[in-house]
Amino acid sequence: MKKYDAIVVGAGNGGLSSACRIAKAGRKVLLIEQHNLPGGVASSFRRGRFEFETALHELAAIGTPEKRGDIYKLVNEDYGVDIKWLPIPDLFRSIHMDDDGHVIRDFTMPKGRKAFTDKMEEYAPGNREAMSKFFELFDECEKALDYIGKSGGNPDSKVLRSDYPNFLKVGAYAPMDVLKALKFTPDAIRIMGTYWSYMAVDMYRLSSIFYLMMVGSLVDGGAFIPEHTSHEMVLGLLERFHDFSGESWFNVKAEEILFEGDRACGVRTDHGTVYSDHIVWNGNPSMAMANCIPAEVIPERELKLANARKFSARMSVVYVGLNKTAQELGIKDYNIFISPGLDTADEYKRVGKMDKIRSTAALCYNIVNPKIGPEGTCQMSFTMAYSKDVWGDVDVDEYVDLKNEKAYEILRLYEKATGCTLIPYIEEIAVATPWTFCRYNMCPEGGVYGYEASEWDNCMARMMSIANDNKIKGVKFTGASGPRGDGYSESLITGSMMGGMVLGEIAREEKEGK
Amino acid sequence: MSLNIKIGMIAPLDMIKFAKMPKVREERIAATPAKPLPKTYASNAKAEIYHPRRQNVVIDAINDNVPGVKEIVLKAKDGRLAPFRAGQYISIGIRIGDVKTCRSYSISSAPELAKEGIYKIAVKEDPSGFVSPYIHKEWKVGQELTISSPEGFLYYEPLRDCRKVLALAGGIGITPFMAMAHAVASGREDCDLTVIFGARTADAIPYKNELDELAAACDKVHVVYVLSDEEKEGYEHGFISAELIKKYGGDDYSVFMCGPQAMYKFLECETAKLGLDQKHVRRELFGTIKAPWECPGYPTDSRGKTYKCTVKQCGEVYELEASADESLLAAIERAGIAAPSRCRSGECGWCRSKLKSGTVYIPEVTDGRRFSDIQYGYIHPCASFPTSDVVIDVPAEYLF
To answer: Which CATH code for domain A3-49+70-83+228-310+457-511?
Structure first.
C-alpha cells in the first residue's frame, strides 16, 4: 500500500505551490496530474516554429531588488525556482471603440506613481488629489494586510481600528464606491477601471481591497512575465518539488477521493489507488463534490456554499504567430485593452451573450521579449472572457466554424483599433474556447477563474472565513477557487497557504498521536 | 492620519460592515438550498464529446484497396465519434504479444461520418515493419480497439491559408487529403483543392476511384496523378517538382504535403525553389526516424551500441536495454511498458518524459520540444536515441 503524508491532485499553479510547500517541510508528497504536463492553464504549446504562452498576461508582485514582491519571495526565494522575469514597459494601453468601429478614447498608462498620476492628469484633469489619496489608501491596505498576515489571521481589532481605519472603512465596499468617495472624475474612473477584466467582475461587485492591491502593486512595482512562458515557471516549481523529494505521476486521472468514515484516506486513480489522510485538490470544488466525493461525507454547509456561488469568467483565447516582426507591423504595445468603454456593469452583461466581439485584452509578446520566437516573426494573443456559459449552446459540429468566426472578429477588432494589419501574416493560429479549458482544466463551463469573487463571496469575505471553509475532513481545495480568488499570484499564494494548513494539521495529529 | 475616507452617511458603521462580512457570508450560505450539484455543465459536456480522453470502436469492415493497402472502417461502440478537422489523425492502441504500442493514422473519411460513429483509415503493409503486417494479418471485423481523440494540425485554416490548396500526396499519404476532398465536396470546407498525387504506376494509386468521383462531382476538387515509373496519357510523369507545383498552383496557393520521408526531403528542395513563405508550406508529421545515423550530428560512436535504460513510471522502476539505433520509445515499448505516444515524430509532445540522467541524440528535424523542456532536460522518447546509459521518468498511458 502506497501511503503518503499528502496527495496533491492537479499540478496547476495552486497544486504545485501546495505540493512544494508540503514537500519542502520534509513530508512525503505525491502529485497527480491528468495531463502529461504540469501547469494547468499555466503552460505553453508548440505550433510550427512558434511556442505560445497559454494564459499569463502579466504578474505583479515580482518587484525590484530593493523591494521584492510576494511572488518573487514565494517562487524565487522560498521555493528556490530560478526564473528570469522580464519587465513590461508600460502598464497598459486602452482603446475604446464605438459601435461603428471608431476610436473614442486611446490612452496609455505608465508605471510609477508620479508618471501614472501625471498621465492621468493629461487624460482626465482634476484627479491629482484623488490619485494621491488612492495611493495613500493602497499603502494603508498593504500594511493592514501585512499585519493581518503576521497576526496569523487573528488581528487585534483595536490595532486595526487605530492603525488601519481606512482599510476597515473601505473593506466592505466595491471599487466604484471607493473611487467615488475619493472623488475621482468619471473620466478617471473609466481609466482606473481598466483592470476590471483581469478580475472579471464589474467595479460594483469586486472587493475594493483586492482591486486596490492589484492596481497599486502594478503601478508601484510594474508587471512581469517569465522569459520562457509560464511553462518555464511551472517546470521550475516541479523541479524544486522533485528536489524536495516529491513524487509526481503524470497522465494519471484522479477519479474518486476515498474516505474512512467521514475522513479522507486516499485517492482512486485510473492508475491504481494511493493513500493519504491529507488530500489537496487543485480543481473546482463543485465538480469534485459532484463527481469525486461521496455525498454522505459532504457537510450540508459545503453543499450550500457551492450552490450559492457563481462561476467566474469563461475564457477564450486566440493565439497567432505572424511572419513579420512587431516593428514591421507597427505594433508598439505589449498589452492593449480594447473595449466599447462602457460602464463595467454594462460590459459584464454584454459579455454574457454570443454577440459580435467588441472587447479583448491583446498581447504582443515580442515587445517585452524580442527573442521569444524565430527571427522575422512575432506572436500575439487575444483574450476575451464570457460572463455566462454561452459556448454551452454551440453545436459540436458547428464549433470549428464558430471558432474561426470569433477569431476573425477579434483580429479585425484589433486591426481597426490600432490600424495595424495582422491577418495576411498569420503563419500559425490556434483558438482556445471555454471548451478547451473544460478539456485541460476540468473547470465548470470553462471558467478558469473559479468562483466569482464578488459581493458576499468577495476575497476579503473568503479570507475572513477561512476557518469555516474546507470542512470536508482531510480535503483542502487549492487554486483559483481558493480564498484569494483567481490569477496566477493568487493561486500560488493560496497554494502555499493550503499547504501550510495541511502541515499544521499533520503536526497537530502527530502531537495527538494519531 | 490625513486620510479619512467616508463612504455613505455614517462612516463608523463601515467598520462594522467590514467586520460583519463573514457573518453575511454565512447567512447567505445558510439561506441557500443544499441541492445536489450538477455532474457536468453544457460546455463541459460538449468538450467531452469534442475531446474525449479515449474512444472505443469496433472494426466494422476491412476493405481491400490497391495491393498492400487495406481500408479499415471503425465504428463507435455506441453513438458518435468525436468531430475532426479534415486532415487530422487518430492514434490506436495496439497490443502485439506483450508489447503495447500505438500508431497514428489519418482519417480518410468525410468529417460528417463522425456523427454516425464512423472513421475510416487506411493501412499500408510494410513487410519490414512491426505493426502493419500484424494489422494486415490479425485484425478482424468485430474486433474492439481503443483510439485517441483526433489530433494533428494538417487542416485547412481559412484565416491562415490561401484559398487554393495544393495537396501533395505520396502513396498512402493521400489519406488526410481524402478527408479534405470529402469536406470540400460536401461544402463543409470552402477552399479550392488540387491533389497532386505521386505514385509509381497507375495501378498502385490507393483511393483512385473515390478521388476521381469526388473530382468529377465537385468543381472545387481537382486531382493530378504523377507517375514516376510509368508514362501514360492523362497522367503527369516524373516526380512532384517545382515546375509541376507552379503549373497547377498559379500565383497564390498553400502547399500541404503528406507522404514518406524521402518525399519530404525531395519537396523541401522543390518548394525552396519556389520561394514560398513558410506559412504557405505545411507538412504532415515526419514519421519515426528509422536510420538516425543518417541524420546530421549523429554521434557515430554510438551506432550499434546497446545501453542500459532505467524507466521510472508512477512509482514503478523497470530495467531494460536500449539500442542507439532505435528510439527510446521503441525500447520502452518492447519491454512491455505502456508509454504514452501519439505522433511518434517528435512533434506532439505526448511522450514527453524527463531524462533524469544520461544522454540522447535528437535529430533536429524531429525536435519539437518546448524551450524550457530543453532547459530542464525533458525529451520526446519517440524522437530520442540513447547515446549512454539513461534513466528516464515516463508518464502513464491510458489507451490500454
So the answer is: 3.50.50.60
Structure-block grid coordinates of residue B261: 520521408
Strand A44-47 and strand A50-53: pairing?
antiparallel
| Side chain identity at residue A271, one-letter code | H
Cα-Cα-Cα-Cα dihedral sign, residues B14, B20, B26, B30: negative
**CB < 8 Å to B350, chain A:** 36
The band of B11, judged by pLDDT with boundaries at 50, 70 and 90, is: low
- The ipTM of this complex is 0.96
Confirm whether B39 is domain-assigned.
Answer: no
d(CA A364, CA A382): 9
In a domain, B370, yes or no: yes
Record the cell numbers describing residue A339, joined without a space: 473595449
Q: For B103-114, write each residue's pLDDT tens digit.
A: 999 999 999 999
Q: What is the pLDDT of residue B72?
A: 98
The DSSP secondary-structure symbol of B355 reads: E
User: Are B309 and B240 within one domain?
Assistant: no
At B8, the pLDDT band (50, 70, 90 cuts) reads low
For residue B262, the domain's CATH number is: 3.40.50.80
Could B395 and A460 be called an inter-chain contact, meaning their C-beta atoms sit closer than 8 Å?
no
Return all residues near B157 (Cβ < 8 A) that are at least 6 apart: A404, A429
Q: What is the domain-level CATH number for residue B117?
A: 2.40.30.10
C-alpha cell of B47?
468538450
| Closest by Cα among A288, A279, A284, A290 to A9 | A279
Q: Are residues B332 and B252 in the same domain?
A: no
Residue found under cell 510594474:
A222
Residues in chain B closer than 8 A to A454 (CB atoms): none
Calculate what percentage of chain A has a pLDDT beyond 70.
100
Please check whether residue B306 lies inside any domain of the structure.
yes
Question: CB of A429 within 8 A of CB of B159?
Answer: yes
**pLDDT above 70 for A175:** yes
Contact A46/B370, CB-based, under 8 Å? yes
Contact B305, B390 (CB under 8 A): no
- Are A283 and A479 a contacting pair, CB within 8 Å? yes
Domain membership of residue B244 as a residue range: 164-283
Q: CATH number for the domain including B357?
A: 3.10.20.30
By the 8 A CB rule, do A350 and A342 touch?
Answer: yes
Could you read off the pLDDT of A316-346 as tens digits, one per residue? Answer: 999 999 999 999 999 999 999 999 999 999 9
DSSP-based three-state secondary structure for B367: coil
Q: Do B18 and A408 touch (CB under 8 A)?
A: no
| Residue B3 near chain A (CB below 8 Å) | yes
Q: Which residues contact A115 (CB under 8 A, 6 or more apart)?
A: none
> Can you read off the three cell numbers belonging to residue B219?
468543381
B6 in a domain, yes or no? Answer: no
Distance CA B94, CA B43 (A): 32
CB–CB contact B398 A253 (8 Å): yes
CB contact at 8 A, B196 and B227 = no
Residues B277 and B310 in one domain: no
Residue B88 amino acid letter: Q
Task: Categorize the per-residue pLDDT at A241 as very low, low, confident or very high, splitting at 50, 70 and 90.
Answer: very high
- Give me the number of domains chain B comprises: 3
